[in-house]
């Protein structure tokens, strides 16, 4: 083999003649064209830009790239911008259940990819090959191949196809009933284009054991949830402390409430909040609307930005109207400084510092470098308020973020709970109440704790009062959906912490 031939194969490997036909060949396209016309148009759409560039950016990112492609095909909102005005998933946004650096080094397991799909706001049904049959698999692929509302991601071993590599994830883009073949949309586009595979051969490739987990591979069905994903709050495992914090919330809090002789709501809050682990504020975040600043300095919001900001503000308003919020606020306002230090409330007046950190995180996201705020320095932060066409004032944090390759203007749209806002420039001011603060965040997180958390409270009357405060049944719809999403995230992270995500893929989230 010459060097030139080697280079050509490394650039775009040739599929082995195991009845694998690339979509670009005449035969491959004929297979596609024999399916129904609507599906042809849909398939051609998702194979064109901007979907087409979703090829894994790292050798071990096949799971992340597959999930990003499917989430985008389902039009699930990532809650933040990708580039320019586009709200689009890429791999850098998918770090809820596993740090990106770890995925980059070792890849991601089947169970944790299921976890990621849940965290991103999708509905997921997952099956290992020992939990399903080839007939079930065929039935699901046929259903998803005639619908825009469901997609299949397959986990298989490349060796079965005599391809280079080992374990791999790819979406399934179509099915031909007459030939019993599936279309694999390979996300390693630098190696293989989309190609048709006999379904029996694909099942054989899936019916192998993943050496890392010791469990069979399989497939997952991903569709849209009937409820909205996180709008204002989300849980994060970016900081290494997330394991201890998840353990505290799910395992330790029920034990504390059972061991302590709590007499009233204040005692309940004191038991929980005075024992919060360090770096607690790194675990629950408010979802910021980050965008690139216009070069000409013009201030305007698109209709979509206005609508999303209004929804965030409505969620914040609903949090602040419930009784639990009032109890939390009263407790924090009277508690000793040690509790405030853990929660970060003593620094909440210094909003520009917080905003500078958010701008750095935003610059990392806009650059596709998730979790990299330490690589950026916020040179200047300006908190300002503006009105457009008589609309209510909008609070914007504007920052100039610098890294080794240059600088970037970043803006963060801040949800506000105030009905009337005064406008200001870049000088110091009182920003309390201008963004989701500790009392808002803690209220949301207490609501998201599993219902059984409170069962250890001995006083029956107090137990009923607590249940009344934390029950999701009587919450407004937006806040209820927000709380249920947080509760689901917390359960997922607990299963990650306990290394149980691989065991029961169908375990209920809440």
From TrEMBL:
Any idea which UniProt keywords this protein has? Acyltransferase, Cadmium, Membrane, Metal-binding, Transferase, Transmembrane, Transmembrane helix
What is this enzyme's class at the first EC digit?
transferase
| UniProt key word Kinase | no
Q: Which residues form the Peptidase C83 domain?
A: 5-227
Q: Which organism is it from?
A: Rhododendron griersonianum
Keyword Membrane attributed: yes
Query: Which EC number(s) does UniProt give?
Result: 2.3.2.15
Q: MF terms per GO, please?
A: glutathione gamma-glutamylcysteinyltransferase activity; metal ion binding
Name of the protein in its database record: glutathione gamma-glutamylcysteinyltransferase
Q: Which SUPFAM superfamilies match?
A: Cysteine proteinases (SSF54001)
Please cite one Gene Ontology biological process associated with this protein. Answer: phytochelatin biosynthetic process
| Listed transmembrane segments | 14-33
